[in-house]
Amino acid sequence: MVTIDNVYKTVLNILNKENRGYIVPKEFNSLANQAQNEIFEGYFSFRNYVVSNDSEYSDIRKNVEEKIALFENEETVSAATFANAAGNTTSSYYAYPTNFYRLGSVSANAIHVTEVSNQDIMYLNRAPLTKPTINNPVYLRHEGGIVIYPTTGISSIILNYIRKPIEPNWVGGTASGQIVANPSDNQYKNFELHPSEESELVVKILAYAGVIIRAADITQAASAKEQQIIQSER
Amino acid sequence: MAESKKIYTSQQYYANFEGDSGNTPANFQGLGYYSRASLEDIINNFIVAYIGEDKALAKVPRYEVDFWAQRGMQEFSYDILHSEKSVEIELGAALQFPLPQDYVNYVKVSHIGEDGRKNVLLPVRTVGNPTAILQDGNHNFLYDSNGEVQVAAKSTAITRFQDPNNPANRSQSAQDYYNNNYNDDNFSYFNKRYGSNPEDMTGAGVFFIDTVKGIIFFDGTFSGRADNLVVLDYISDGLADNGDLSKVYVPKLAEDALYAYMLYNLSKLRPSSAQLAPLYRKEASSKMRNTKIRLSNYKSEEMAQVLRGKAKWIKH
Fold it and tell me: B33, B227 in Cβ contact below 8 A?
């Protein structure tokens, strides 16, 4: 978790240097969410080209996986019938949870369910050695959910997935000329990213803020700093 | 890390045999379960050990592993594994019975003697069960209302083969032959002693398997016998219960060979691992050979015992 108040104040301190400008909480919250999403989505590609080694704390790939693991979740889902606007219906349909971001693995009665494509399922269903059974089920993706084969006899479906990070939201005001956060407010939300992302969040927000306040030097400096951070993480 | 492979207490294990239903486990796998591994376990072990980043195979869907595990099971059943399938059937007047549902090929067909031992029966090669087309008095084919030729339920060829009144199928004593019937052309020993084919010189009876119709036929020799117990030892493909792979068993002596078979077949299909496929092929081949030797069940003491009986001059 990264404290949003720290990030907000750091951003303001840098922006206010030499009276460049100021961003209000509403703008900051919007940029904070944008920065968090950008970093979060970057994990999934970043993981594939960073090095992996046998060290305990410097295995970069493991570190990225650790950052993703903060959002790993599982949920038991129930079967439903999916219907689209054209009136087509699909049974044995299991909708993704509302906070769904990326699908990990699927299990049915503690048995791993394998993902297949729409093309594969037609052949699999006709091949005696691979036809899905209750003990060897498969699933295919279907608009906001999955469809599991065989369509009957399947129960206790658990989706392991990566959930979306909650939108960060700074709430507060000024007191005695100082900006003061109100963490007890229900709407106050910190960043959910790993603590190591604090500096990257600051520079990303600064880069966007520089555009808003038309301070190209801020954007350039932030971008350069971001590149420096990325390089250091490899 | 691993849980114990011995899944029952001694009391649970023997309970079923001792008729102790109270202590018999719910899904008891049977006496001797420890000598075999389920295909489900083998597939899961294979996925853990061979598939993943930085392993022999990077990414393989489970259904492909299932496929090659089952193909391996089939091939091993044909070539390596011992036949564990056997049915004992008492022949009725029809002198035939249907092949078992999971039949692939026979190992041997035997007649059970009074001592309970198997007397091996030989197949006959000169008998068939052709489709017998019905004909009218002018030898023209008969057709049904759909214009298809009509066929008889049973061919005359097989009817004659099973006819107990056929002289070749009559059981006659050698005394009859020498004393009275040496001029009888229909005598059953005729042409079975002089200038005859040794494979036909059996009085035990013969059989014929019609694999198209799935029926095994026995000749008329069996007709009227008081004791017509026949045993069919056969091989299946081992996958009759593949709806649940945890009920498909492989001898543990063949487990490693099956892993090698799966690894070779899964890697040869993938460009990323095809380079190593020749190595895997050699490994699979040698492990299959090793498994054959293991399952041949040679015991030096038994071998010595058999050879003691051979301490005689073999005359040709």
Answer: no
Phi, psi of A78 (to 5 degrees): -110, 155
Q: What is the rounded average pLDDT of the residues B69-93?
A: 89
Cα(B47)–Cα(A228) distance, rounded to whole angstroms? 40
pLDDT for res B138: 93
Average pLDDT of chain B, as a whole number: 85
- Residue of A61, A135, A140 to mutate, interface with B, max B Cβ within 10 Å: A135
Neighbouring C-beta atoms of residue A46, cutoff 10 Å: 18
- What whole-number distance in Å separates Cα of residue B149 and Cα of residue B2? 65
- CA dist A231 and A234 (Å) reads 5
The answer to whether B123 and B205 are in contact (CB under 8 A) is no
- For residue B198, CA distances in Å to A99, B173, B202 come to 81, 19, 8
Q: Which residue in chain B is spatially nearest to A115 when comparing CA positions?
A: B61
Q: What is the pLDDT of residues B131-180, one digit of tens each?
A: 999 999 999 999 999 999 999 988 999 998 888 877 666 655 555 555 55
Q: For residue B238, give Cα distances in angstroms to B19, B39, B43, B266.
A: 29, 10, 15, 21
Instruction: Write out chain A residues lying below 8 Å of B246, CB-based.
Output: 135
Residue A162 phi, psi dihedral angles, 5° rounding? -95, 125
